[in-house]
Amino acid sequence: LSHQFTHDIKKSSLLHEYPIATLPNTIDTKIFRPIKKSITKAILGLSPHKKYILFGACAAANDPRKGYDLLSQALQILSAQNHDSVSCLVFGASHANTPPAHQLPVTFLGELHDEITLALAYSAADVFVCPSREESFSNTTLESLACGTPVVGFAVGGIPDMIEHKVNGMLATPHDPQELAAGIAYVLEDQERREAMGRAARRTVEEKYAYPVVAKQYIELYQQLLNRK
């Protein structure tokens, strides 16, 4: 449950009188963890000299809700700014239905069927982009942060719960490719800043979304409910 959902429930005529608890999704921080980029790039056959933008979702290039078209517009803006050393990786699709309007190279990784390969992709990337038009929570955002990779995303659904602007990622005004491109550029342009954001990303997950942290919140909620009887 995200804080946006909590807000919507409080406005509901049916549910607003009931008590509401906001408990986040959790993640296995032993699987989704930072792995050295030189290792992950070598495993995935990626250039050690390029910077990689990662995007991924179920039906990544074909589901309008996931915003691949908005990402493509942002990449067009970046390509016009001569980001020659930048490439884009996409998982969850093997191709796009329409040719890109930008000049940045795009590699489609297809479906990734196990969490280890996902963790390798997140760790190999320099930035993960979540251009969704709508999201309930965005597990991909959480997975990327756990791997120490900053995230740029639109401020929809549960994404603002996880991204602290200019700390572990960048938040963009929903559906604005210009802001999305600016956020991506902000992360890519400065290696020291990018690495600091990556450390903050991992710290966010360890402090708020790791199994022991969220389990403790569930236990406390159960105790509160039992004490009311």
User: How far apart are the first and last residues' alpha carbons, in Å?
Assistant: 25 Å
Q: What is the helix content? A: 40-55%
- Number of DSSP helical runs: 9
Shape, principal axes of CA atoms:
globular
- Quote the beta fraction: 5-15%
Which consecutive residue ranges, at least 5 long each, have pLDDT under 50? none
Largest sheet descriptor: 6 strands, parallel
Give the C-alpha Rg: 18 Å
Arrangement of strands in the largest sheet: 3-2-1-4-5-6
Structural class: alpha/beta
Mean pLDDT: 92
Order of helices and strands: HHEHEEHEHEHEHHH
Number of distinct beta strands: 6
Keywords:
9 helices, globular, alpha/beta, single chain, six-stranded parallel sheet, 229 residues, 13% strand, 44% helix
What can you tell me about this protein's structure?
With 229 residues, this protein is α/β, with parallel strands linked by helices. It contains nine helices and six strands, in the order ααβαββαβαβαβααα. Strands 3-2-1-4-5-6 form a six-stranded parallel sheet, sandwiched between helices. The mean pLDDT is 92.
